[in-house]
Write a structure and sequence with these properties.
five-stranded mixed sheet; four-stranded antiparallel sheet; about 475 residues; single chain; alpha+beta
């Protein structure tokens, strides 16, 4: 009997007739890792099917260990979807599987020679993925037959890793597809060599290969270069997550190493997302949930724009940032948040100066009263009234600016008894419906108002979500997988 080890969650088929189902072709939907789908969904969680994997995922960075909060990308088997077929990789049995989205029936499987730790990419009828065996594979999506495979490293040398034999240069990044170009990175031991490459997706032909990025000895002050996580890119730069550190930037056209991004302190992790001209990265700062913003072109640090709302996960639109935090779910007005982020520190500075000024005025007021100097007393009284009035106004301005940041907030306790015991995790936005996974449940909310639509209990912690083929699929590190 199979043990239920991961969860395929809600598939919802309740929405307007004639709507064309959208695909979910890569991890978090697109190359920006936005987790946003244009497909409108009703939000009603109605279970449809369960698929049971034989093996519980085994992370390369298991608990207990301080790296787990930063390198969490292989704790489940996240899925991608094209048409009516769902694909995922398995980091225990080394296979990639294809399932029917409507029934959960297995269509085909393909065996690599090492763990498949990251979600594949489906594009143009082909499926692409990397493995701990050091290769990148291209398969025909309809039947799983091999089209080509590519090894960026110089040999098939193997070492012991996670109690298994792996390549000395495993592919520990999620691949990035842009147009017909496939980007990848291999290797996790800098002094053994690291390889960042761009391939012609159709043929597997190498466009460029950077085999010198592991030589940056001075880079250890930035956390080092050990590619782990899902790749993202701006117009000019390829950003490679470096596990415990911040991403490294490479020229997309030549592969030339540009720079390590730097946030200061012990901030880093595999979580990355592009939004407009900004890169958001880092999911841990000495135990605190943190996302640092960088200019996507220059890599300049723009600070923690959401420091008041430390988030486990983030989904962005042009107007709103949806944040999953330890406290619950927030919808943050991005324009109002930016204004408050710029203005509140200035008001804080003025407030500090005003408090100091009021103390000085009160000393003069007290001295004038003691000396019986009516003119000085009247002047000090007027100044004191003006200063205290301004201090009150500053407090109200700060309160208004901070209040304007939050469009709505749904506390974890408001989601019901299922949500009280476990934190929230991944999110996905489909049309105007926001889905969020948690420890033992999945919820759906109206994205505009925060109104709770549905909550469904699951066995295990939901660690990733995908929305496609008029369904929502969720994956957990243990328990059943269910489709709604």
């Amino acid at each position: 009997m199979k043990s239920y080890r991961w969860l395929v969650l809600p598939g919802i088929a309740l929405f307007a007739q004639g709507v064309i189902a959208a695909d979910w072709p890569t991890y978090r939907h697109d190359g920006n890792r936005s987790s946003v789908s244009p497909e409108p969904m009703s939000g009603q969680l109605n279970p449809q099917w369960v698929y049971a994997s034989r093996h519980q995922p085994v992370s390369a960075w298991p608990m207990p260990g301080e790296e787990t909060p930063r390198m969490h990308t292989d704790r489940d088997y996240p899925v991608v979807v094209a048409g009516r077929t769902l694909f995922f990789g398995n980091n225990v049995d080394n296979h990639v599987y294809a399932l029917d989205t409507r029934s959960g029936a297995e269509r085909w499987s393909f065996a690599a020679d090492g763990s498949v730790r990251f979600a594949p990419v489906v594009h143009g009828g082909r499926l692409y993925f990397g493995s701990d065996d050091g290769h990148v594979y291209c398969l025909n999506a309809p039947d799983g037959s091999l089209v080509w495979k590519y090894r960026p490293s110089p040999s098939g040398e193997r070492v012991i890793g996670n109690s298994r034999m792996i390549s000395l240069w495993p592919v520990r990044t999620g691949l990035l597809m842009e147009g017909g170009t496939l980007y990848l990175a291999a290797g996790i031991f800098p002094y053994e060599g690291l390889y960042v490459a761009a391939l012609e997706a159709k043929t597997g032909r190498e466009i460029w290969l950077n085999d010198t990025s592991g030589d940056q000895a001075w880079g250890h002050q930035y956390g080092g270069m050990a590619p782990q996580g899902y790749l993202v890119a701006s117009a000019d730069n390829l950003y490679v997550p470096t596990g415990r550190g911040m991403p490294a930037a490479f020229d997309k056209r030549s592969g030339k190493f540009k720079k390590f991004l730097h946030a200061g302190g012990k901030v880093g992790g595999a979580w990355v997302q592009m939004a407009g001209d900004e890169l958001y990265a880092g999911n841990d700062n000495q135990g605190a949930d943190t996302k640092i913003t960088f200019d996507a072109t220059s890599g300049a640090n723009r600070g923690d724009q959401f420091a008041s709302f430390p988030s486990i996960d983030m989904v962005m639109t042009e107007e709103v940032a949806y944040l999953a935090t330890q406290k619950g779910l927030y919808a943050i007005d991005r324009a109002a948040n930016a204004k408050a982020t710029a203005d509140v520190p200035k008001l804080n500075k003025e407030e500090t100066a005003m408090v100091k000024s009021i103390a000085e005025i009160r000393d003069r007021h007290k001295a004038a009263a003691k000396a019986g100097n009516a003119d000085d007393l009247a002047k000090a009284t007027t100044e004191l009234n003006q200063a205290t009035g301004r201090l009150t106004a500053i407090s109200k301005e700060k309160e208004a600016l901070n209040a304007a940041r939050v469009k709505w907030f749904m506390a974890r306790e408001q989601l019901g008894p299922l949500a009280v015991a476990g934190e929230l995790g991944p999110m996905a936005l489909a049309g105007q419906t926001l889905f969020a996974g948690g420890n033992g449940y999945t919820v759906s909310l109206d994205a505009a108002t925060g109104r709770l639509i549905s909550i469904y209990g699951v066995n295990g912690t939901v660690m990733s979500l995908a929305v496609a083929d008029r369904r929502v699929f969720g994956c957990s590190g243990r328990g059943t997988r269910r489709s709604f």
